[in-house]
Amino acid sequence: MHNKDKTCWNCPAALLKGNVEFRACGQSVSDIRTKISEEGLLIECARRPELGMFEPSITYDQCPEWRETEYGYLLKDMRIMILGIDGYLGWTLALKLAKLGCKVSGIDNYLRREAVAEKGSKSVVPIADMETRLKTAKEVHGVDINFKEMDLLNRDELSRFLEETKPEAVIHYGEIPSAPYSMVDAEHAIKTQHNNTLGTLGVLFLIKEHCPEASLIKLGTMGEYGTPLTGRPIFEGLFPADAVISWQGQEWSMGGELTPRDPASFYHVSKVQDTFNVYEACKYWWLRSYDIMQGVIFGVHTAEVSAHEDLRTRLDVDEWFGTVINRFVSQAVLGIPLTVYGSGEQIRGYLALEDAMECMARLIASPPEPGQYDVVNQLSQLYKVKELAEIVAKIGSQNHGLTVQIQRVENPRVEADEHPFLVVSKKLREDHGYDPKTPLEVEIDRMFSLLLEPEIRERLESIREAVFPQTWWNGNHKTSMTLEVYEPGTIEIEGYQPTLVTKSETYDTDPGDDT
Ligand SMILES: NC(=O)c1ccc[n+]([C@@H]2O[C@H](COP(=O)([O-])OP(=O)(O)OC[C@H]3O[C@@H](n4cnc5c(N)ncnc54)[C@H](O)[C@@H]3O)[C@@H](O)[C@H]2O)c1
Q1: Euclidean distance between CA atoms 176 and 198, whole angstroms
Q2: How far apart are CA 294 and CA 300, in angstroms?
Q3: 66-69 and 44-45 as β-strands: parallel, antiparallel, unpaired?
Q4: pLDDT grade for 511, boundaries at 50, 70 and 90
Q5: Are 254 and 271 in contact (CB under 8 A)?
Q6: Is 339 exposed, middle or buried (0-12, 13-18, 19+ CB in 10 A)?
Q7: Is 221 among the catalytic positions?
Q8: What pLDDT digit, counting tens, does each position of 340-379 carry?
Q9: Residue of 119, 122, 218, 271 with catalytic role
Q10: Which residues are CB-neighbours of 238 under 8 A, at least 6 positions away?
Q11: Closest CA relative to residue 71, chosen from 374, 354, 312
């Protein structure tokens, strides 16, 4: 078990109110570290108060409160709150964690359901209302999920719920997740930043007040980093210890500092601001957080959501909320040539829904240390957009008998069409035992099978118009013009080759511009 040697120091049940007052105003991290090294550190255990004050040295494999699971040692009956539990990822994770024996609570204000309806769209996979979801989860999986309808910006209500549930981990999915939505107009941009940035800021204060030892697992996005044209590495949020900056003949260490961000929409800006707020809260109040820079998720399947049709999670394919692979599969089913923006040379990180859930389970099982702000780049593989179109087209035609074409359309976004991409994603694999399990082709094939079911195909037909890109970063609202339609298999995938660094070993630092 990869986390068996972790100790009470990382455990959210360990109350840091022994001999060191971590959260006393004015104490710097270095003052506290000096005090700990001089006087030692004593803690109390919220789960085993009979132990009194003791050194935080009991390892997970020694402690009866931790038990083995396939994702590492996990705190028994761990209390977990999911903000945004009705969403694509939130609902999927809720079922997974509840099945793992966690006590899951969650909130949602159905903002996503309303925003998709505003676009004139709906989840292509029909999803049950929350009451039915909860009832079915009980019947099918035998689990109880404690849900409250609530806006997380309503701090009084959330405060009461946190006090009642006292979570040991808070999973923060509760944001507006769409770049195009944030670029529609002033109203949508302001709503996105207000909801996301101020929501997260309020959540930080509430965690400090009600459950300061809980780990906050906060969803950022790989889009925070942008696509640096120099080809420099995209580290995991913070510069590694051996990174240096060199200027005018001198060198300085960059180790531990936040890496530059270059967000690609007003939505991504909200995520960058979250990053700074979470970073500061860890510094000021000794909160602990994994800030996850997540790649683009695709797919519909986990064992838990596929167990019953009322447990399925949403799948959107409209131009605001649909993510690229999900949209390509739906376009193939609809007979629309797959819409590749611009050159299609854009490179992004991706992972299947099932793998994303596994990553989350592993991070929840291994909380950061008190005061630790840590960043994890969560992705399985890098692909060019036009490469994805080829893969979707191939599976659609070979496995499902569809005739699929690809079209290049005007790019409504402001982004680098062609760029090197050298991404580091080591922590999940090296520290948390993650190994991607769901091949892209397998999940795409599953999606085709589901979307080709007659009822779902009919739903897809009914939202056909919402699939086309119409939201431009310059404020225009018009359908992107087609630049070229081509048959799959007739183009070369050339240009920059992406590099994904998953292990601490030397790698080819030439990002491979062979254009
Ligand atoms: N899906 C992806 O590909 C992807 C990739 C990278 C990052 N992320 C991030 O992961 C998180 C979850 O993404 P998702 O795809 O599940 O999105 P989602 O929209 O399906 O889920 C978010 C949920 O939060 C709820 N919510 C939003 N604001 C709220 C508020 N103020 N109060 C209460 N509930 C609120 C929404 O109603 C929704 O159910 C988001 O933060 C997103 O930015 C997603």
Answers
A1: 12
A2: 17
A3: unpaired
A4: very low
A5: no
A6: buried
A7: yes
A8: 999 999 999 999 999 999 999 999 999 999 999 999 999 9
A9: 271
A10: 256, 257, 258, 259, 374, 375
A11: 354
Q: What angle is formed at CA 473 by the lines to CA 469 and CA 478, rounded to 5 degrees?
A: 40
Q: Which helix (H) or strand (E) holds 406?
A: strand 406-409
Distance of CA 244 to the CA centre of its chain: 29
Domain boundaries defined on the chain: 1-71, 77-501
Ligand 1 center to 292 CA (angstroms): 13
Ligand 1 atom closest to Cα of residue 316: 20
Indicate which residue's Cα is closest to atom 39 of ligand 1: 87
* pLDDT for residue 177: 98
- Mutation choice for ligand 1 from 122, 125, 161, 173, CB with most ligand atoms inside 8 A: 173
27 or 66: which carries more pLDDT confidence?
A: 66
Per-residue pLDDT averaged across 54-78, rounded? 96
Burial of 60 (0-12, 13-18, 19+ CB in 10 A): buried
Residues 447, 441: Cα–Cα separation, whole Å: 10
Given this model, what pLDDT does residue 32 score? 77
Q: Which of 92, 192, 197, 221 is catalytic?
A: 221
Catalytic annotation present for 267: yes
Pocket residue to mutate for ligand 1, from 92, 107, 108, most atoms within 8 A of Cβ? 108
Is 110 annotated in the active site?
Answer: no
Beta strands at 296-298 and 244-247: parallel, antiparallel or unpaired: unpaired
Provide the CATH topology of domain 77-501: Rossmann fold (3.40.50)
For ligand 1, the distance from its centroid to the CA atom of residue 315, given in whole angstroms, is 13
Cα-to-centroid distance, 499 and ligand 1 (Å): 28
So what's the pLDDT on residue 260? 97
Q: Which of 112, 193, 221 for a ligand 1 pocket mutation test, highest count of atoms within 8 Å of Cβ?
A: 112
Sheet holding 347-352, edge to edge: 296-298, 347-352, 381-384
Q: Is the pLDDT of residue 512 over 60?
A: no
pLDDT value of residue 1: 86
**Which residues contact residue 442 at a Cβ distance below 8 angstroms, ignoring those fewer than 6 apart?**
none
Q: 14 is written with which tokens? A: 């360990």
Place of tokens 């079915």: 136
pTM summary value: 0.96
Calculate how far, in angstroms, residue 87's C-alpha sits from the geometric centre of ligand 1. Answer: 6
Q: How far apart are CA 371 and CA 213, in angstroms?
A: 9
Q: How far is the CA of 353 from the centre of ligand 1 (A)?
A: 14
Q: Give the Å distance between the CA of 248 and the centre of ligand 1.
A: 44
Find the length of the chain: 515
pLDDT score of 36: 81
Give residues (CB < 6 A) around ligand 1: 84, 86-90, 107-112, 151-153, 173-177, 195, 199, 219, 221, 294, 296-297, 323
